[in-house]
Amino acid sequence: MNNLTVDQLKELLQIQKEFDDRIPTLNLRDSKIAYV
Hints:
The structure is a single chain. By secondary structure, the protein is mostly helical. It has one domain (6-35). It has helices at 6-20, 26-35. α1 (6-20) packs across α2.
């Protein structure tokens, strides 16, 4: 992992959770996930 803070990890986990819940705002989350 490159310079991930605890807050960033928590955010990523939240994004993953929301993604699993089929939240319709996928573009933003896809770009965030792709950035990692």
